[in-house]
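REVIEWER CHECKLIST
Item 1: Sequence provided? yes
Item 2: Single chain? yes
Item 3: Sequence as submitted:
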Amino acid sequence: MNKELSALALKQWLYQWRQWLRELRRYGGRPRFLFPWLWLKLSYLLDSPYAVSRRYQRRMKAEDLHVYGETPLTSLELIAEKSAVTASDHVFELGAGSGFTTLWLFGVKGCRVTAIEQVPVFCWRLLRTIRRMGITAIDVRCADYCQTSLAEASIIYLYGSNLDDLAVTELAGRLAVLPVGVKIITVSYALQPYLQTPAFIVTDQFTVPFAWGEAEVFIQVRTDDETDPALPHDQNGS
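Item 4: Structure as written out by the authors:
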């Protein structure tokens, strides 16, 4: 078992370094992204996000200590293109983790970002980075995203493949009361099947690579309960 864990850790470590090099080559010409990215990378050089997450899960007495995952920035780029993210958006990232996706959304897409994360070390390191870099367009909330307000979001991003059905159902109910037109991006599942009344319409579905394999991404729009924008609708209600 120890050999299996060691092999998994080595594979994870090698993947991370290869991914970091790809990200550096692809986005290194953008100082707005590069300098915060490098500063935050330094804070995880000897203490990876996976190690931080495992310590937190152990302290919380979780049954599964290996729940942490990150969206590769090259995959995030594809997701952002498909969902038409622009500099005018305010993206709420639910479960922001280490914060690298938050920095990418700010530094490459120019968005205002609210990063919501429960793990204090993740929050503290990201907050320290944005303060050091003088970034005012990122807000860090050390909170439960099922409890904090999401009212200002124009786009919500959730990579929560480890959530159980009960947690997804609770979250879908919260997101169903957001204003019509808000985009919600989820990985591995759509939200509407967890609700009994119409609240979301899937506008796109595609596959992107993650460290562990490929996953389906769903782009959904909060829609009027009585109107499905994918269906014809005339003034006579037919």
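Item 5: Key structural point noted by reviewer: Residues 2-222 form a domain with the Rossmann fold fold (CATH 3.40.50.150).
Item 6: Recommendation: ____
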